[in-house]
Design brief:
362 residues
Length: 362
Amino acid sequence: MKKIKKKKQKQKTGFMAMSLMMALVLLANVVTVALVDIGLYLLILKSGRIDSDDLNTSSGKLIFALTIIACVIVSAVITFFMSKILSRPFKKLLSILNSLAAGNYTARVQFGKSARRFLAVRELEESFNTMAAELQNTEMLRSDFINNFSHEFKTPLSSILGFTRLLKYDSPEPERQSEYLDIIEQEAMRLSSMATGILNLTKIENQEILSAVTEFNISEQIRSCILLLQPKWEQKDLELRVDIDEFTAEADAEMLKQVWINLLDNAIKFTPKNGDIFITGSQTEQDISIDIGNTGSEISPDAQTRIFGKFYQGDESHAGQGNGIGLSIVKRIVQLHKGEVSVKSGNMQTVFTVTLPKKHRQ
């Protein structure tokens, strides 16, 4: 909160400096007019051509008018050159803005040393470049999302289309037909799961508050999720080690259930046959922490920073199961609960840690 106030104070100071500079320009014009007027008046008196009483005559008024015109011309020249100097950074900024609007997200503004002497100009440069960098990152994420999305949908569709054509034109034997139909069914289920995941992710991304908060036993919910996935971990002969006390918290039970299922399913998927999955928990007066880990291949440090992104998969060939949506859903649900989720990987183990507040925070 202090940082925000400091930033606002800095911006205020910068624009006050710009306003003060403009006021000084106007003051310089006024002083210039006054000095030229007084100078001409003194020059006329010294020349002896007219005295102060003559200023009320027609010739005196003409001289006075010419003096004012001279002052205006001098003031206009000063204003013109000052406005050229002041408007130069903004013209440059406008050009960069047009480039950014045309899709050049690498555009950055760099004012000259003379312009950057003003605090307001430096702040404008920094704010614009920060905005441009954010837009560039957003565009990269959007492009990656579309590419991955297209790839994830294209792969099962190609399989379905290919095996459908084999069934239609090759007339395979009954055993082959059954095998092809099984593959078509699996790929269709994969598409259905992906569509459901995307709809679910879109729904929770647009959600800002939790509307179904109740107090319930999180430990019991995790145990029910383990039983729900029992066929999967038994098929790989995995050993599950569960060491959690009875934890209760105020949360959206249905949404948290997705967190445990996604993390457990992820652990089962990446644990080799006869491997281990371990689930532990701890609590403080305010928070509950649940660790879900597994043995097997490690996640690289680079992948750990990207693993919660949409459609990200450690297997960049996309040959493995899954579609990279599950962890995005986990992160968003935990964020809605004002909690945190993190991952650590090393020594042939990977552990996901979910920390949640015991009491619902608005």
